[in-house]
Specification:
The structure is a homodimer.
Chain A: H1 3-10, H2 14-22, E1 30-33, E2 36-38, H3 41-54, H4 61-73, H5 76-87, H6 108-119, H7 128-142, H8 151-170, H9 176-212
Antiparallel strand pairs in A: 1-2
Helix pairs in contact in A: 4-5, 4-9, 5-9, 6-7, 8-9
Pfam family, one (chains A, B): MerR_1
Keywords (chains A, B): DNA-binding, Repressor, Transcription, Transcription regulation
Domain HTH merR-type (chains A, B): 1-70
Chain lengths: 216, 216
């Protein structure tokens, strides 16, 4: 198909498609003339993914390039999820949270290690998510809003159930590219969906408390 | 205390404190001389909150101002949670997802309404989170990555349990300002913590699948 048809099919403006081509996010089409190229279904699929990552996922062009690189190199559902998981921005660390030299000081690193051990989660200490959680807990302590003992473990048990649903959404897909793309969707695009459900549930529970008369 | 001491106590550079004062995020100190002002514990508390919102929460200065405005006007745990919840950016909509005129077309609005009815959640259709969820589901359908029947409800049930933990973290605080600030922390700052726990749980489960030999 021509670039105009690719634009119509995906809802991405032609100017944006050309930008993604220049940035190397989208592979070039098959040249049919000096200024014309032919695009296929794989371009449409990739374009929908780029759009999802940059809008719903909120990723920068540079981050999108990293994720697509991980997608292209990944094998199998574990490879895809693993590679994509490490390529995506770590939640809560859009801006550096720590001043240099502060990380090693606090007890939060040990707290995270103990939590993982208690949960029997097999995660290497080098995981960016271990570092992210350590930084987040440190920031919460500064705000005097630490989790009470056991509270973090209660959240973690629910996170475990959510992750189980996440993985179920990724199995049963055989084509490696589709599989890797599904990993991106599950990790980057579906995270806001759960956060929205959580906000809605909070709204409901606040309303019930008010109706129950035990509120302020 | 002087501004230099305020900076030391909160870890926020003096230049940033002056910027927050100019932007009206932080109330002015008590003037003690032409170029000197005295700051109190309430300034330190507010400053820690601004820092948390702009770093861990990832909020812009404008969004931070909106949230602080909601904090200052809120009453009680329900008022605080409600006001802050609506003032915060809606997850997944950092950039506009919908083209104009598209929202009313799809069946996602009805899907969200049916979901809320099935869950018996009391949430008005005007909630920004209803609109956000509708837009997210539409985007997932474009990516051919819809939730299977019942899958979204399974996520919603877990979100309900998470919201229950969230509300428990906000009760038992009497001072209205502390209460509103806790609402901000729970809603804006703790969201990444759950997302990090989810990523860690995913890492663990991927590892177990590989070890179990049922992976690629």
């Amino acid at each position: 198909m021509k670039i105009s048809e690719l634009s119509r099919q995906t809802g991405v403006p032609v100017a944006s498609i050309k930008y993604f081509l220049r940035q190397g996010l989208l592979p070039a089409g098959r040249a049919t003339a000096a200024t014309l190229a032919e695009y296929g279904e794989e371009h449409a699929q990739r374009l929908r993914l780029i759009k999802a990552l940059t809008t719903l996922g909120g990723l920068s062009i540079a981050a999108t390039r990293d994720v697509l690189g991980a997608v292209d190199q990944a094998h199998g559902v574990e490879g895809a999820l693993g590679a994509v998981s490490y390529a995506l921005p770590v939640p809560g660390t859009a801006q550096p949270v720590e001043s240099p030299g502060e990380v090693a000081e606090g007890g939060e690193g040990a707290e995270v290690a103990e939590l993982l051990a208690a949960l029997e989660w097999q995660v290497p200490g080098t995981s960016p998510h271990v570092k992210g959680l350590t930084a987040a807990l440190k920031e919460l302590r500064r705000l005097d809003a630490q989790y009470a003992p056991g509270e973090l473990a209660a959240y973690a048990r629910l996170a475990e159930s959510v992750a189980r649903l996440d993985l179920e959404r990724a199995v049963g897909i055989d084509d490696p590219v589709s599989l890797a793309e599904r990993a991106v969707v599950v990790l980057a695009v579906c995270a806001p969906v759960f956060e929205l459900l959580r906000r809605l549930a909070q709204e409901d529970q606040v309303r019930r408390r008010v109706a129950g008369g035990d509120g302020a």
